[in-house]
Amino acid sequence: MKSKMKSDIVADWIKEQIKLGKWGSAGSKIPSQRVLADQFSVNRSTVVTALELLKKDGIIEGVMGKGTIIANDTWSLLASLPRSKDTQPSHPVETGIIDLSKGELAEDVFPDGYLNDVLARLSGKIHSLGYEERGGYEPLREAVAGYMTRQGTPVTPSSILIVSGAMQGLQLIASGLMERGASVFLEEPSYLYSIHTFQSLGMSLTGIEMDADGLVTADLQSKWRPNHPSALYTIPCFHNPTGIMMSESRRKEVLSFCAAHRLPIIEDDVYRELWLDSPPPPSLKSMDTNSNVLYIGSLSKTLSPGLRIGWVAGAEPVIERLANLKMQADYGTSSLSQRVASEWLEEGLYEHHLEYVRKELLKRRLEASASLERHLSGLAEWRIPNGGFFIWLKLKQDISIKELYTEAVNEGILFHPGSIYTEGTSRSIRLSYGYAGPAQFEEGIRRLKKWIITLSK
């Protein structure tokens, strides 16, 4: 076991003792380094490293003449305690890092000055910024409805709720429409495992197997229970993290099963417009004749994550309820962001922008594919997606992904371990070719190859 890993264990144990009040409250002295080293049969240097971690978190502090004392046994301690499942790893903010983990596009994928032009056009149109209507800025709702209709999913402005990113849409659905104790079915692996939107409200996640056509309907059928509150969450287009596109026939199967069993669907379609080879099949929402689908869209993946503009499309009574909840939560999404988004969508600028982005992303995908073939063809398996920017890499060697992650970070390489996207263990990792440039991607994969080989010996 590495010293770093031992120090984490010691630090976690110390936090647990402080949490339980075993050594008193704030201001109380904790056992000496020698006592802790003897208790864990480790070197004092390991204990010192553990204590430094706790000092950084503000939990303990060294006081001249007293030794090490508990500095905070409330908020700082609670903030540092491990959750039931690790979320996406946090990374140090450093230059020189090759980031293959980010779920967003790099600035150089977008046209030069693409936001400045729109902001300049708006400068003479805005006279004041107040609270918007509950459903959002009306011209933006109209623009979103028009855009979705042009893309094959007919909706009306009154069936649209503007939200502060897709994440808020999920939070509103979870808190406002679902019951405590409900089950949320989802593809496994899935992005939803990496956040705690539903679990934090007393709901459980139930993974559904996937194949090349998307989630397996037969597995959904075997795990569904009658008379138990539940819903299906799915990312049918360029799934996160696998990149899989749900086929049209599978979409129809899923819709049919869910309609027959009154299983509501949350369709997270934020990657839809990042198709690279051909447009995706019709959305689930467009084929839904029973108002069974709540559709989530966003501009974060295609235009600007900083705008924090997303939307939920659904039956009007449902949208009205969600709008009421949102108004209680934040009084509405940023008025300025909504006007910027409206300008993009109303004038047809967004479609033109997407054409440019697809061309740039296509180049990156081609380079990323070549890099993987050069360095990892005998060490891993993967499928190049038809869109989006994620590649799900499954290692052939039985090595510790945690150790690979640690060594990669030490080398300045960031990726997401597959375990954060599933309830179980995983020998896969998620790579993104949307943020790191082709040269960086090549160098990152070259360094990863070195450590995969080293750890498999």
UniProtKB/TrEMBL annotation:
Q: Does the keyword Signal apply?
A: no
- Name the SMART domains on file: HTH_GNTR
SUPFAM superfamilies listed in its UniProt record: PLP-dependent transferases, Winged helix' DNA-binding domain
Give the domain of life.
Bacteria
Domain HTH gntR-type stretches:
4-73
Which cofactor does this sequence's record say it needs? pyridoxal 5'-phosphate
Q: Name one GO molecular function term.
A: DNA binding
* Record's keyword annotation contains DNA-binding: yes
Keyword annotations from UniProtKB, A to Z: Aminotransferase, DNA-binding, Pyridoxal phosphate, Transcription, Transcription regulation, Transferase
Q: Name one Pfam family in it.
A: Aminotran_1_2
Family to which this protein belongs? In the C-terminal section; belongs to the class-I pyridoxal-phosphate-dependent aminotransferase family.
Protein name as catalogued: GntR family transcriptional regulator
Q: Which organism is it from?
A: Domibacillus aminovorans
